[in-house]
Amino acid sequence: MSIVKISIGSRSPPSPPPNGPRHRRVARFGCVSDPLVVVTGVHKHFGDLHVLNDINLTVDRGEVVVVIGPSGSGKSTLCRAINRLETIDAGTISIDGVPLPEEGRALARLRADVGMVFQSFNLFAHETILDNVTLGPIKVRQQSRAAAEQKARDLLERVGVADQADKYPANLSGGQQQRVAIARSLAMDPKVMLFDEPTSALDPEMITEVLDVMVGLAEDGMTMIVVTHEMGFARKAAGRVVFMADGQLVEEGTPDQFFTRPTTTRAREFLGKILTH
Ligand SMILES: Nc1ncnc2c1ncn2[C@@H]1O[C@H](COP(=O)(O)OP(=O)(O)O)[C@@H](O)[C@H]1O
Ligand SMILES: [Mg+2]
Asked: CA nearest 69: which of 58, 82, 79?
């Protein structure tokens, strides 16, 4: 079952809500659903390794889904497939009703609809923080420099690093760099944000500042797919947790269900391990 998170938070976002006006349809059984990312029957092999094995996942507009699972289970490959950084062998992936094209300009446009934040921040080392955030909108979205800079400053403010705008990435802490990476993705007005273990390369004291920004995004209604083992984030922000093992989605539930009453042996074993470390 998919759970729709409707944001009624007290925050007022500095820029328009990331997903624009909500167009929801009422599905059968009276459940409100508005699929934004639809992954159907997806398979992917690396040689003999069946790294995605019949993945089916629907993420509704405004929904936050946490993907959790052992190392090597295919979580990053799934994110990369959704962003078309990786091709798939079978199945379909559509974003907002449009199947991902194989290549070309249509792909570039659709890819820009999907923001991605990786474990390593991947900022451009020789550009200032401000330029890191304005480059995409100017080059890909053809925005004027003035408009792109205004928006970049708003976004840097939103992630709490406005005072770092003229510095270079190396002058910032890891947590600050990751928040800039989030601002850079948001500057492209993505319909959905993918986060692949965004805090796993950070020192513990910096994890919270990045997670706080992500919780704020979730509260503002951003559609998010987040690979993370941070249970605090999942409980605070996610409507649903999906557990992945050996290339398959093995189990899903609300954070409370999953963390306190996992139903499969594999999920129980996995949780046993991460809880005792
Ligand atoms: N480009 C690649 N070529 C070959 N094998 C790969 C490649 N990328 C990932 N794999 C393998 O696919 C499996 C799933 O990897 P990945 O999606 O990164 O898992 P996770 O993110 O859950 O740790 C792993 O066994 C990994 O070694
Ligand atoms: Mg990974």
From this structure: 79
Number of CB atoms found within 10 A of residue 241's CB: 25
Pocket test for ligand 1, best of 43, 45, 48, 49 (most atoms within 8 A of CB): 49
Pocket flag, ligand 1, residue 51 (CB < 6 Å): yes
Q: Which two tokens stand for residue 172?
A: 């910032």
Structure tokens at 192: 């959905």
> How far, in Å, are 115, 127, 146, 201, 225 from residue 67 at the CA level?
16, 32, 38, 18, 7
247 lines ligand 1 (CB under 6 A): no
User: Would you say the CB of residue 74 lies under 6 angstroms from ligand 1?
Assistant: yes
| Beta-bridge mates of residue 44 | 52
Does residue 198 contact residue 119 with C-beta atoms inside 8 Å? Answer: yes
Maximum Cα interatomic distance, the chain, rounded to a whole number of Å: 55
Beta-carbon contacts of 7 under 8 Å, excluding residues fewer than 6 positions away, are 62, 218, 219, 220, 221
Could you report the per-residue pLDDT of 71-90, keeping only the tens digit for each? 999 999 999 999 988 999 99
Residue with tokens 């005792």: 276
Task: For residue 52, report the distance from its CA to the centre of ligand 1, in Å.
Answer: 10
**What is the per-residue pLDDT across 93-138, written as a single tens digit (0 to 9) for each?**
999 998 887 777 777 777 789 999 999 888 999 999 999 999 999 9
- 201 CA to middle of ligand 1, Å? 18
Compute how many other C-beta atoms are within 10 angstroms of the C-beta atom of residue 30: 6
Q: Is 76 in the pocket of ligand 1 (CB under 6 A)?
A: yes
45: Cβ–Cβ under 8 A, 6 or more apart, which residues?
Answer: 51, 89
DSSP code for 93: E
| pTM exceeds 0.70 | yes
